[in-house]
Amino acid sequence: MTMIGDNLQRVRARIAAACRAAGRDAQTVTLLAVSKTWGVDAVREAFAAGQIAFGENYLQEAVDKMAALRDLPLQWHCIGPIQSNKTRLVAGHFDWAHTIDRLKIAQRLSEQRPPELEPLQVCIQVNIDGGPTKSGVAPQAALALVREVAELPHLQVRGLMTIPEPAPDFAAQVAVHARARTLFEQIAAVVGPELDHFDTLSMGMTADLEAAIQAGSTMVRVGTAIFGIRPRP
Ligand SMILES: *Cc1c(COP(=O)(O)O)cnc(C)c1O
């Protein structure tokens, strides 16, 4: 087993333990391997250890990687900010985008999604802890944005995504993730009957995946614990 393969096994064991502690089935949590800054060899190692879904932040880097890995059946998730001049790269290459926080970006993604591809699967990013400089729609505006994005023909709204500030301890991590879970359930109760597959709560990273799973995350985005500490740019 390679180092990345070992690390993946450890992360899967963390997810399984967190699910047991929360009384949840481990099948209800998807692991997204965040491969930003790492090369194609690292992705191939993770694939060899059974990993299919990969998250990327830097769009040109991601598209280059996808081209070099076309021989593998991978699923690509955009988890970085999307400027309007980059929507075509996202619409043309990714399976998922987690960082939708403006209708204008969603409209461009829908218009630019090639018709031969499946609809782009999207999450609405919510600024759950109110950081003033952060991306994400305010919690009270999330339902309206979900409804507007749901009208777009080439997108499918799957749920919410959050990136809370680091919290000092487990209880504080759970508390902030629980706010996202409550919002997700409130919105799902309204739109669930009309929307198929409003089923994804993308939250939790290397440092807080247990707390996120405790609070109800269905997709954890893990980079460092799988690939190592990222080189500083
Ligand atoms: C980089 C990144 C991650 C992974 O973070 P780690 O702490 O390395 O697990 C998850 N989500 C987003 C949005 C990121 O930018």
UniProtKB/TrEMBL annotation:
Residues found modified as N6-(pyridoxal phosphate)lysine: 36
Keyword tags: Pyridoxal phosphate
- Provide the cofactor list for this protein: pyridoxal 5'-phosphate
Listed InterPro entries: Ala_racemase_N (IPR001608), PLP-binding_barrel (IPR029066), PyrdxlP_homeostasis (IPR011078)
> What are the protein's GO molecular function terms?
pyridoxal phosphate binding
* Residues in Alanine racemase N-terminal domain copies: 8-231
A Pfam family cross-referenced in the UniProt record is: Ala_racemase_N
Regarding protein family, the annotation reads: Belongs to the pyridoxal phosphate-binding protein YggS/PROSC family.
Q: Which NCBIfam families match?
A: YggS family pyridoxal phosphate-dependent enzyme
What this chain does, per the entry, is described as: Pyridoxal 5'-phosphate (PLP)-binding protein, which is involved in PLP homeostasis.
- Name of the featured protein: Pyridoxal phosphate homeostasis protein
